[in-house]
Design brief:
The protein is α+β, with helices and mostly antiparallel strands. The protein is built from four helices and eight strands.
């Protein structure tokens, strides 16, 4: 390796070399976090652990979502082949990813589940749904007017990748059938 007397040789290049040789690209990830100490740090760790470099963080603490969460927008850069693993790592840590990149979750799907949601472990149902599809839960409203021992209903709003709504619906149907829940599906284009 030759040494240069040029002063710029000591300044790191903005176009850092990656192990795949690809230049990092900018990406935006929009998250929903609980208003608890340590949540933002917990969301940033999977990004760093998977080769992401933070560019900016916009933490909307005064803007609470319908589920009582705080929206956070993270701009990062990483090689294109690492972005998907960053999003998967965030979801693996239980972080609600509302949007990842420009079109990742471009379609929204609202579904109603009816039955013994509490007895069949609603948390397990939601976790399995997010694991089995490319969908991300963006909103949940539970109604149990007769108490948790009686049938209840939950409205789920799922954000899906363009063209993958049917795959998400198929997963909802399968999980609901296993737990003896009824699914009220949205009308699709062309339905009469």
């Amino acid at each position: 390796m030759s040494h240069s007397t040029d002063e710029s040789a000591d300044v790191p290049s903005r176009e850092a070399e990656t192990d795949g040789g690809e230049r990092p690209q900018a990406h935006t990830v929009r998250l929903e976090l609980a208003d608890e100490p340590g949540q933002l740090l917990a969301a940033l760790k999977p990004i760093a652990d998977n080769g992401g470099n933070l560019l900016s963080i916009f933490h909307e603490r005064g803007n609470i979502t319908p589920r009582g969460r705080i929206p956070v927008e993270v701009d990062l850069e990483c090689p294109p082949d690492r972005f998907e693993s960053i999003v998967d790592a965030l979801r693996g840590e239980g972080i609600n990813v509302i949007q990842a990149g420009a079109e990742r979750y471009g379609e929204e799907l609202s579904i109603l589940l009816v039955g013994h949601l509490v007895d069949t472990d609603l948390s397990d149902t939601l976790h399995r749904l997010e694991e089995s599809t490319a969908a991300s839960l963006s909103d949940l409203a539970l109604s149990a007017p007769e108490g948790t021992d009686e049938p209840s209903s939950a409205r789920l709003r799922l954000a899906t990748r363009p063209g993958q709504a049917e795959e998400a619906l198929a997963s909802v149907r399968a999980i609901a059938a296993e737990k003896d829940l009824h699914v009220v599906e949205p009308l699709t284009e062309g339905a009469q």
